[in-house]
Design goal:
It is built from ten helices and six strands. The chain is α/β, with parallel strands linked by helices. It folds into two domains: about 140 residues, HAD superfamily/HAD-like (Rossmann fold), CATH 3.40.50; about 70 residues, Putative phosphatase, domain 2 (DNA polymerase, domain 1, Orthogonal Bundle), CATH 1.10.150. Strand 4, helix 8 and strand 5 form a beta-alpha-beta unit. It is globular, with a radius of gyration of 17 Å.
Length: about 220
């Protein structure tokens, strides 16, 4: 029986992925590089530092660590400016129904995200109260696909990793959850999330029977 639920944030609960893309695209333009949405797929669920490394490789740019740190700060400031106006309309379809389902059944629920802005985002969209634990980039040292963020979340929920199910939209996140010995539900396209236990295009494709089944599996 599953006793803990863990959600990723970007692209699963809220559509902040588009704002990350816009911020990285703006950064890439400074390098004279046209960063595409297809390339952005590799950035999903990955730490900001690793994303910067990938972008510099793509754009064939070399820089000092000091300059890289400045760019990382700039990217985050651009991202924060984009999300400043976020509200409940940013919550993806069906997410609130799923969160309410788990809350009504008193199932321990956590957020496990690479984002360092997870808590303020949850506050902005009014979802913080649905989570018993929030583990983000401020709490862990290793980025997905390392399982650290999910293992810490399970520990904070007081359940074993094997008792958890993770909702994820990235290949790195699915790999991290599986390395933690957790069940996985992919949110997105089967072609990129095929290694998940099951994949749905969005939460509205799930019904109560499926959610109940997660808890009794």
């Amino acid at each position: 029986m599953k006793k803990g639920i863990i959600f990723d944030l970007d692209g699963v609960i809220v559509d902040t992925a588009k704002y990350h893309y816009l911020a990285w695209k703006k950064m890439a333009a400074q390098f004279g590089y046209d960063f595409t949405e297809e390339e952005n797929e590799a950035f999903k669920g990955v730490s900001r530092i690793r994303c910067m490394e990938l972008l510099l490789e793509m754009a064939q740019v070399e820089a000092s660590q000091e300059q890289i740190n400045e760019w990382l700060f700039q990217k985050n400031q651009d991202y924060l400016a984009y999300i400043e106006q976020m509200d409940q309309e940013e919550i993806l379809p069906g997410v609130l129904t799923a969160l309410s389902f788990f809350k009504s059944r008193q199932i321990p629920t956590a957020l496990g995200s690479a984002s360092k802005n997870a808590r303020p985002i949850l506050e902005k969209v009014g979802l913080l109260s649905y989570f018993d634990a929030v583990v983000d980039g401020n709490d862990v040292s290793a980025a997905k696909p390392d399982p650290e963020v999910f293992l810490v979340a399970a520990r904070q929920l007081g359940v074993t990793p094997e008792q958890c199910v993770v909702f994820e939209d990235s290949t790195a996140g699915i790999e991290a959850a599986q390395r933690a010995k957790m069940g996985t539900v992919g949110i997105g396209h089967t072609d990129s999330l095929g290694k998940a236990d099951v994949v749905f295009a969005q939460f509205t494709d799930m019904d109560e029977t499926f959610l109940n089944g997660l808890l009794t599996a």
